[in-house]
Amino acid sequence: MSADHDMPRERSRTAGDSCTDAAALEAARWVVRRREHGPAVDAAHRAWLAEHPDHRAAWRQIEATHADLLALPDEVVRAFRRPPSAATPAPVRRRLVAYGPLLAGLCAVLMLVAGLKLLLPWSAPSVFEQRFATTRGLVTSVALPDGSVLDLDTATGVQVRFDNAGREVRLDEGQLRLDVQQDAARPLRVIAGDVQVTVTGTRFSVRHTRTGLDAGATRIMVEHGSVLVERTTMPVTAPLRLAAGDTVLIERGRWPDAVDRLVSADAAWREGRLNFVATPIAAALAEFERYGPTGLVVEDADVAALRIDGSFRVQRLADFRRALVEALPLKVVTRGSTQVLVADGARDR
């Protein structure tokens, strides 16, 4: 039997089978939409088919194209993927010529459907979702899919989710700094407790910790650009707009009505340093403890309330201890296996 005998016959076209370009394009859209396989989508598709004879004709043509694809011999599909050569058997070359119009039309339909999958708003969104966390004493930096850079302080945990609708970073505990890639169509939100920070493209820090400096509160510091700070729980409060150089401390149960100005954005932790300005000793020790054990305890409330200034390296606890006993009337005493920071009465006289 000749290889030409099993080629599909050209379909006869009737007036009812013709369709407009608009109907053909809409039929291709329905190929994409029906991938959702939902009852509402199926009902809408049936309604569209019933609207006009052109719709039914266009859908029949797409279905016929798909059926012709399934009917193609394997050797023709394989040969179509590469240009015919002298090594291609003559029967296959004849089939390629015969199938040419069908294959060309099929490619056009497939390219249209592939393009619609990228452009249509109902196509499945591209989702990036991942959790990042640092252990005690570790500071790290993460490059996000949109080009933003996320810096994580010690003992910090975040959940990141990006999709076509927006970008979200949920800060469970710790401190982060974000250098956000500009994207007005997909704002980035940082959620920390009952505080939400919304930006389109800027550089800022958010701190939300249970211990250390500002324990139990949320602090936002803006280095570049601007951010919108809102409350996510009742009662409704007026949002705050922070610009470069602004900072705000949001304590539990209290919503501020103004922002403060920074002399400089305090992101010293990214350089392995801790900066203290009139910081109570108890809070300063708790901040060091976030990075590692200090071996120091304070038992006296008056000692805990004494304040310290200075910039100290996280890994040089000895420098901090020396500054405490040199700048303040304090000394370290050993009680069993514990070192206690106590008042030095001899220096008071």
Describe the structure.
The chain has eight helices and 18 strands. The longest helix is centred in the first third of the chain and has 30 residues, at 90-119. The chain folds into three domains: 15-119, no CATH class; 128-261, Sandwich (Jelly Rolls), CATH 2.60.120.1440; 272-348, Phage tail protein beta-alpha-beta fold (3-Layer(bab) Sandwich). The N and C termini lie far apart (118 Å). Strands 1, 2, 3, 4, 5, 6, 7, 8, 9, 10, 11, 12 and 13 form a 13-stranded mixed sheet that branches. A hairpin with a 2-residue loop joins strand 6 and strand 7 (195-199). The protein has helices at residues 21-33, 39-51, 53-71, 74-80, 90-119, 281-291, 301-305, 317-327; strands at 128-133, 140-143, 149-152, 157-162, 167-179, 188-192, 195-199, 203-208, 218-224, 226-231, 240-243, 246-250, 260-261, 273-280, 296-298, 307-313, 330-335, 338-343.
**What would the CATH topology of the largest domain be?**
Jelly Rolls
Please give the CATH architecture of the largest domain.
Sandwich
Kindly report the average pLDDT value.
77
Uncertain runs are 1-18, 79-86, 113-124
Number of strands: 18
